[in-house]
Amino acid sequence: MQRRALLSTVGSLGIGSLAGCFDGTGVGDIGTGSTRTRDPPQNYADPRFSRDRYDAVARYEIGHVDGDAFPGQDIDQDVPIDWVVWNHADTARDLRVRVTTGWDERDLGVHSFEPWEYVWLRFPVPMEYALLVDGDGRRLHESRFAHREFDCNAKGRVVRVHDDWSVDMTRGSTLAGCPGVSVTNVAVDRSEGDCADSSAHRARIEYGGTEVAVDGRFFTPDPCHSVEVVESTYREDEDLFRVVLDAIEDDGACADCVGAVDYELTAGFEYSFPGHVAVVHRESDGDTEVARATWNADVDLGGSD
To answer: What is the model's pLDDT at position 179?
Structure first.
């Protein structure tokens, strides 16, 4: 896979560049009762008070996948999420920043921050991430975010490390009505059943451009069965599309052996994919989940070349 390296090891950004990340995060309103450290003087080169350039310790783009889901998609759907790790203090300090998924990890290393400097990160690929910030010999902050947050309401998020090493996180958002996951069709096609040489159900799930494809095998009492979709639901609270298949007996005489019916299922989606897809086979003794997949689980976090 293509590797995304450090965009600039040391750089600076103007207020215009930071607007997308700081907009709506409360950074411009620091100084409220919840602030744990004093604000810098207003003559400091701070994006809240002037259009002067403000130093970034480093800038990173995290995540790349081959292929492009929903190539004709509205640009306001599946938008990137920007993060800033900000030394919101008059004290210089070292902070370690790491990003993990359930399958990969990228250690961005220890950065030496002067007062009021920051590290900027952009996440363009919808996935489940954890952003970890360590300092003072301990874990200072951990934020987790997932597929559904990459929508038209996504705004910048700022982790602020204060003089006393206390940490808070501010995030921006809008109240726009973003289109969510929409299932457009579910269809299954099967080949002729045959006598089985084993009895292990299986399924393989693959995300495509606008469809999810499932290649599976359903074991049946004899080869003369058809596989049908008996239930398909999207659970928004779990960001899970769950499809249940059952084997329906065909008419006519049949061979006296345990059957295996191969099938191909496609589920079409609009706007975005569900974060997770589960395939369930229904048998006489209950339902069995035979496969589960996570969208963009193969995301390349970069940084290892």
So the answer is: 81
CA 296, CA 261: separation in Å to the nearest integer?
Answer: 29
Q: Are 196 and 169 in contact (CB under 8 A)?
A: no
Helical H segments across the chain, by residue range: 15-22
- Residue 99 CA to residue 109 CA, distance in Å, equals 10
Separation between Cα atoms, residue 106 and residue 98, nearest integer Å = 6
Q: Which residues contact 284 (CB under 8 A, 6 or more apart)?
A: none
Tokens read off for 280: 């369930």
Torsion of CA 103, 296, 145, 96, to 10 degrees: 50
Handedness of CA 140, 146, 148, 150 (dihedral sign): positive
Which residue has tokens 């996440």? 123
User: What is the four-CA torsion angle of 12, 14, 19, 24, rounded to 10 degrees?
Assistant: 80
The per-residue pLDDT for range 205-249, each reduced to its tens digit, is 999 999 999 999 999 888 899 899 999 999 999 999 999 999 988
238: tokens are 């779990």
CA 209, 213, 217 angle in degrees (round to 5)? 170
Q: How far apart are CA 229 and CA 214, in angstroms?
A: 12
Q: Residue 54 — pLDDT band, cuts 50, 70, 90? A: low
Please tell me whether the overall predicted TM-score, pTM, comes out greater than 0.90 for this model: no
One-letter amino acid of 302 = G
pLDDT category, 97, cuts 50, 70, 90?
very high
Whether the pLDDT of residue 169 is over 50: the answer is yes
Query: Which tokens go with 74?
Result: 């509205």
CB 165 within 8 A of CB 140: yes
For the record, the structure tokens of 218 come out as: 């359903």
CB 26 within 8 A of CB 34: no
